[in-house]
Write a structure and sequence with these properties.
Elements lengths: L7 H16 L2 H13 L6 H13 L3 H9 L6 H13 L3 H13 L6 H8 L4 H17 L6 H13 L3 H10 L5 H13 L3 H13 L6 H14 L2 H14 L5 H13 L3 H9 L6 H13 L3 H14 L6 H13 L3 H12 L9 H13 L3 H10 L6 H13 L3 H14 L4 H13 L3 H13 L8 E6 L2 E6 L8 H10 L3
Antiparallel strand pairs: 1-2
Helix pairs in contact: 1-2, 1-3, 3-4, 3-5, 4-5, 5-6, 5-7, 7-9, 8-9, 9-10, 9-11, 10-11, 11-12, 11-13, 12-13, 13-14, 13-15, 15-16, 15-17, 16-17, 17-18, 17-19, 18-19, 19-20, 19-21, 20-21, 21-22, 21-23, 22-23, 23-24, 23-25, 24-25, 25-26
The chain binds one DNA strand of 10 nucleotides through helix 3, helix 5, helix 7, helix 9 and helix 11.
Length: about 500
DNA sequence: TTAGGGTTAG
């Protein structure tokens, strides 16, 4: 469309650039650009924008920026295209910085610019900046624009300000599938699963249309509640809708079944997928790991490596190491970590991987080795690593290491009641009653309280929540009988 | 010509 009436050369360049954008073909795109320069062709504004988009899609941010910088006069479309490139590639600071430069150049942002720039308003500073942008948006009466509004509510939700997100959502005069999904997902991502489902129910009654993204978000909320029956209903509904294959939705189903404890269903979905992403593999590996199925984890990881179609990432290795640790396969886990250190997996170990190794050694009762490993780590150990070791010291009654680790933990996180309890129990185990009492006194002094652990169960599509020794629920006897049957 | 929602871990 844009090519009409602008000459053959324009049409040719337009066609070539669009093909390069589609295929993310950097080299070919660069050759098209070079041809324009060699033949002294002055590209139309449209083609310059396409060049920015092309370089952005090919991850060549410097080249994209050069196209922008070389323009003698920049209009709002150029600026927005470049801000969008930064934003989509995760360069939030650069996106906001360019937005400021745009304002300084007296170019007025439009609804496209606001929609784009709000995606980069993350983190404390980004959020503060986003709030100022919100004021500006209100002044320009763009806050009820469906695209701008969706980006605004997402910014608030990502900052944990769900009430403000909801206000923006409710104030939208018209809601579409994206804005509805954004608010449902906002609740789900903050762990407000019941609220997410309630809103989904309400919006459905009001005639909302759902698509595969909506169902993926709803499944996230159901996973958080471990609501298997409702999850099955959503799955059946999705099947009845005959939606085309979407890897994201299938990944959500794998995760939902795994979090609800049904690994057989998860694996069935995984096996039947015509294509998988690294997240599909990770969801399945995490499922096995969390259920202590070390053998399945290692077997699936081998399959992934043998297939050689999907590269493992940091989460893959975390899941594998975690699975080995919880599945009693410490030697295999240590070997895999060793391969990581040699660079054979293409993933550089970070502190969380080191933490898994501490956990591997701790759970295997190799307390002294775990202690030495922590001391040699190239990272400053956090409460997570010390915490794994303290638990192991308690289980394996290692008072010497445990005392050091426990004291260290009380310094790092004095508000964590669990550490006081474990240290006190450790002293008690060793017959050091005075020290055990002292730790309990310290707990009282600091007003630290241990919350009772909670568990929940789904009966007839209703979730019932309990804490230890809780008999206040009207149906507790029924639940108790079920738990007894399940040996929980 | 530039725009919004999604899946794994923590």
């Amino acid at each position: 469309m844009a090519a009409r009436g602008l000459g053959m050369k324009f049409e040719g360049y337009d066609m070539l650039l669009n093909a390069c954008i589609k295929k993310r073909a950097f080299r070919e795109g660069q050759r098209v650009h070079a041809h324009m320069i060699k033949t002294r062709y002055l590209p139309h504004v449209y083609l310059r924008t396409r060049l920015i988009i092309l370089y952005g899609k090919c991850d060549r941010l410097r080249d994209a920026r050069n196209v922008l910088d070389e323009m003698p006069e920049k209009n709002v479309v150029y600026w927005t295209a470049m801000i969008s490139v930064y934003s989509q590639r995760g360069f939030a600071f650069e996106a906001l910085d360019l937005f400021v430069q745009m304002l300084r150049s007296d170019t007025k942002p439009n609804e496209f610019t606001f929609t784009t720039v709000l995606c980069s308003c993350t983190g404390t500073l980004g959020f503060e900046f986003g709030r100022q942008i919100h004021s500006n948006i209100i002044k320009r009466t763009l806050d009820t624009h469906i695209f701008v509004g969706s980006s605004l509510l997402e910014m608030y939700a990502k900052a944990g300000r769900i009430h403000e997100a909801r206000e923006v959502f409710e104030s939208l005069p018209e809601k579409d599938v994206v804005s509805c999904t954004a608010i449902i997902s906002g609740y789900a991502q903050l762990g407000l699963d019941a609220e997410a489902l309630e809103l989904f129910r309400r919006l459905n009654l009001e005639g909302m249309t759902s698509n595969f993204v909506t169902y993926a978000s709803v499944l996230t909320a159901l996973s958080g509640l471990a609501a298997l029956e409702l999850g099955k209903q959503v799955h059946n509904h999705v099947l009845r809708c005959n939606l085309p294959f979407h890897v994201v939705l299938q990944n959500s189903l794998i995760d939902m079944y795994s979090k609800c404890g049904n690994l057989i269903y998860s694996r069935r979905i995984f096996d039947n997928m015509p294509e998988r992403t690294v997240i599909s593999w990770n969801a399945m590996l995490v499922g096995y790991s969390k259920h202590g199925m070390g053998g399945e984890v290692v077997e699936l990881y081998k399959l992934m490596r043998n297939e050689n179609k999907t590269k493992p990432d940091s989460v893959t290795l975390l899941a594998v190491l975690y699975g080995c640790s919880h599945g009693g396969m410490e030697d295999v886990g240590l070997k895999i970590f060793d391969e990581m250190m040699k660079g054979n997996d293409g993933v550089e170990p970070d502190i969380e991987h080191y933490g898994c190794v501490v956990d591997l050694l701790s759970r295997a009762g190799r307390v002294e080795e775990a202690f030495e490993f922590i001391k040699r780590m190239p990272f400053e150990p956090t409460a997570a690593e010390w915490g794994s070791l303290l638990g192991a010291c308690r289980v394996h009654s290692n008072i010497d290491v445990g005392e050091f680790v426990g004291r260290r933990l009380l310094e790092i996180e004095p508000e964590n009641a669990g550490n006081y309890v474990i240290l006190s129990n450790l002293y008690a185990c060793a017959g050091r009653w005075e020290d055990a009492g002292m730790v309990r006194d310290l707990m009282m002094e600091k007003a630290v309280k241990k919350d009772p652990g909670r568990s929940w169960i789904e009966i007839d599509q209703t979730l019932h929540s309990f804490h230890a020794s809780d008999r206040s629920h009207p149906r507790w006897e029924e639940v108790f009988a079920i738990l007894k049957k399940l040996s929980i």
